[in-house]
Amino acid sequence: MHMDLEKHGREVYTHENFYIFQKELWSACVDCGIEGAKEDEACSKVESERTLVSKAWAQLFKCMHMAGTNKEKLTIIIYNEGCSIEQKISNMKSDVASRPLDDMETFIGSNVSKKIEVLPPEPSHTKGCGKHMKGGKEKAMEQQQKVPRSCHACKQYATHDSRNCPTKKSS
After folding, report:
1. Does the pLDDT of residue 43 top 60, yes or no?
2. Domain ranges in the chain?
3. Fewer CB within 10 A of the end CB, N or C, for the chain?
């Protein structure tokens, strides 16, 4: 079935997108345990390991569910059965050291992504446009702070000069 999907993807996608599609399809085959994928032995081995782990967790959860919150049943599971299972496992020789990441991936049933792409947010403009409309009070305060100068047109000390004197006739 996956070969048909690859053929269809080859016809539909561009080269770059097809390689992305092919990679995702292959990882889906391995994660879901579809046999008959490119490497039958590797795929079936991963499938059998994951199935075995899933069945073990399912059995444990079934026992815990059956015990519920009953103190006696939980005590039996934890102390009697749990200790005997722990002893049996510790007596066995382990050929592979388990990492927490592997345990998490096995528990979830999916691979943890190695590359996480989080882009920084777009910068926002929150301070407005920057223009400020002056009120009458603000304008009057500015006029008071101006230094009076001599106007040659009206011969007075004022805040205007001969270019913008109010007595001068506009032409």
Report:
1. no
2. 1-38, 49-112
3. C
